[in-house]
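User: Show me a protein chain along with its predicted structure.
Assistant: Here is one chain, sequence first, then C-alpha cells.
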Amino acid sequence: MAVEKAANSNSEYGGGGGGEGHAHFDTQVLLNVYDLTPMNHYIVWLGLGIFHSGIEVHGMEYGFGAHDYPVSGVFEVEPKSCPGFIFRCSIPLGHIDMPPSEFRRFIQGMGSEYHGDTYHLISKNCNHFTDEIAWRLTGKHIPGWVNRLARLGSFCSCLLPESLQETTVKQLPEYHATYSEEDATDSTSTHDHTESDDADKDRLLPSPSAGSSEVTFLKEVQRGLTRKDNL
C-alpha cells in the first residue's frame, strides 16, 4: 500500500501539471546533507558516515527531529543552516509543480506520521524522513550513502559510536520544545475543518533560536485525501 502510494506521487506532484488556476509553481527539490561528526572526514572514503539531512522546497528546509512529546517532530529552518550540524552538500532530486500552500499542507500532514517521540537513530531518523518525502514528491530515493550507517547499525549497533546511540536532536538543548500537556492534547486531537481551526493549525511550535538560524517545529494537521484518492 505504501509503495503504491509513493509510486503514484511522482505523477501527482512532479512534472508539468496545472496547479491552482492553471498557474505553474515549478520548484526544485534539494536534499541538504550535513555531517554529524568530524569523523566523517575519515570514514566517508569507505562509503560510510553519520549524516543529517533535510529537504529544501520553496526556499525553506524541512527535517525531522526528536523531542519527548507525541506531536509533530517535523521542523523548518533556513536552507543549509541547520544548527548543530556541519553542512556538507546539496543534492538535486528533481522538480515538482506544487503551490506553496499545497506543499505546506503536505509537509504539516507528515507531522502526524513523524512525532518527535518516535524518533530513533537506527529505525526512524531524519534520513528516513527525507527519503520518504523525496519518494512521495519525486519518485526518487535519497542516495544510499546518506543513511547507510543506520542500515548497518540495524544489524549491529556496535558500529555506531556510543555518543550517537541516543537521538541526535536531543543532544542539542535548542531543540527541546516547551510543550504543556494542553499543547500535546490539542495537537493530537481531531478538529472540525472550520476557518478558525485552519488558522490555528497554521501556527508553528517555536523553538529557541541557535545562532543565526531559528528552528521551528511545525504544527501537525490531519492528513486529508490526496487528489489521487479523490478521483
